[in-house]
């Protein structure tokens, strides 16, 4: 996110939507290299603690890899399974 030069309420809304979707899918969303202005926006809105934030992409990769993956989707019963 280091190249981000502007973020308004629509941008914050997209981040919140992505966070919600990642939680619904039991996956991990990590923000990395956020610019100071985005950090201030997240702090002012109270969202900074909702996101996992790492200083760089290099630090975010192990954080994502260490996170538990999505839960396995239940499989439909096969013909061999008793009903």
Automatic annotation (TrEMBL):
GO molecular function list: anti-sigma factor antagonist activity
STAS domain boundaries: 1-64
Protein name as it appears in the record: Anti-anti-sigma factor
Naturally occurring in which organism (per UniProt): Nonomuraea jabiensis
Pfam family, one: STAS_2
PROSITE patterns listed in its UniProt record: STAS
InterPro entries cross-referenced by the UniProt entry: MlaB-like_STAS (IPR058548), STAS_dom (IPR002645), STAS_dom_sf (IPR036513)
Record lineage: Bacteria, Bacillati, Actinomycetota, Actinomycetes, Streptosporangiales
